[in-house]
Write a structure and sequence with these properties.
The protein folds into 2 domains: about 10-95, Multidrug-efflux Transporter Regulator, Chain: A, Domain 2; about 100-130, no CATH class. The protein has 7 helices and 5 strands. It has helices at about 25-30, 35-45, 65-80, 85-95, 115-130, 150-155, 155-160; strands at about 10, 15-20, 25, 50-55, 60. The strands form 2 sheets. A 3-stranded antiparallel beta sheet has the order 3-5-4. A two-stranded antiparallel sheet has the order 1-2. α3 (about 65-80) packs across α4 (about 85-95). The termini are far apart. About 10% of the residues are buried.
């Protein structure tokens, strides 16, 4: 495959989604064959559908947003679900997705088989040990020279108010 070829993937409904980072609402409307006002309405009805808004306020859909739109369209138009029924189906499907790989970083845990995970586990333990130490108190150094007693540098009140004798 050359560098300038566009990668296209086909969704289960048969529509092709170009391999791009963001899609504008008009592109999503054409891809999904749904009017833009319907997409805006679905955004208010389905919390899973949240496109980003660019600096100009335009909606920027990601690939997963386009796939969600296609799924909503299929549920509503092809399978006959109501909006609340489709919302519930999408919500349960998201809950059933497999959780991410959990890293066990307990102190007594068995070592993972992957060398990269072992290295990460070691780094995490070192970081934990570093952050668990009490903070060291640096020696405070004064920027002024040490003072002598306050009375040595200032005259006493008696000296101030006693008249001096002139010779």
């Amino acid at each position: 495959m050359t560098q300038h070829q566009t990668i296209r993937r086909t969704t289960p409904s048969g529509a092709e989604i170009p391999d791009k980072l963001y899609f504008r609402i008009g592109e999503v409307s054409r891809l999904c064959e749904v009017p833009a006002y319907v997409l805006r309405f679905w955004e208010s009805e389905f919390p899973q559908l949240k496109p980003n808004k660019g600096g100009t306020g335009q909606r920027l859909y990601r690939r997963r947003d386009v796939e969600t739109v296609l799924q909503i369209k299929s549920l509503l138009y092809d399978e006959g679900y109501t909006i609340s029924g489709a919302r519930q189906v999408i919500k349960t499907e998201q809950k059933q997705k497999a959780p991410q790989l959990a890293l066990d970083i307990e102190v007594g845990a068995s070592a993972p088989s992957n060398p990269q995970l072992r290295k990460l586990q070691k780094e995490m333990r070192e970081l934990h040990a570093f952050l668990s130490r009490p903070p060291a108190r640096p020696a405070v150094q004064s920027i002024r020279s040490p003072r002598t007693s306050p009375s040595a540098s200032r005259p006493s009140t008696e000296e101030l108010f006693t008249p001096k004798q002139e010779l």
